[in-house]
Amino acid sequence: MGTRDLNDEEIVDMLFSRDETAVNEIKALYGRLIYSVAYGILRSEEDAEECENEVYMRAWSGIPPARPQSLSAYLCKMARCAALDRYRHDHAAKRGEALPIDELENCIRSDSSAEDRLSERELTALLNRFLKSQDYNTRVIFLRRFWFSDSISEIARRLHVSESMVKSRISRTMKKLREYLASEGY
Q1: Is residue 93's pLDDT more than 80?
Q2: Taking CA 120 as the corner, what is the angle to CA 115 and CA 122, rounded to the nearest 5 degrees?
C-alpha cells in the first residue's frame, strides 16, 4: 500500500512517469472513498470492489493524457460512472427500478434539439449555482441522494430527521431546480 505522504499532484506526476506504485498510493489514499461511492450505487460488496479495481485501471490508462485538478473528484466521477454502468447493465431487464440519478435526469432532460442543449460544463455551472443558493441541509440531501445514491432512509438517519421530511425536501428541491433551469433557458 501507500508508504509515503504524497499529495494529488505528486501522484498524478507518478502516473505521468508511468510509476506503477502510483496505483498503490491512490488505493491507500482514496480506496475507501472509491469503494463507498460504488457501494452507494450498487449495494453489493463484490460489485463495489470490482468497480474500485476498474477505477484503478481507468486512472492508470486515463492519466496521461488527463491531468485532473482534483484527483479525488476525478476518481469519484470514474467510480460513479463505473457503478452506474454496472447497475444499468445488471438491471436492464428490471425497468421498474430507477436510480436516483435517473430521477435527476428526468428533471434536467431537454426536449429541444441537440444544437440547443447546453454543454455539460454549462449545466454543471448551473447546478452548482442552484445548489449554492440552497440551505445547507437541502444541499446535503440533494448530494447524498443524487451524487452518492443514498437511500431516503440513509439520508434521514444521517441527518436525524424523518423520511417524510427528506422526501418532501427532495420533491420541493426538484421542483425549484426545474423552475431554475427553465428560467436559465434550459
Answers
A1: no
A2: 90
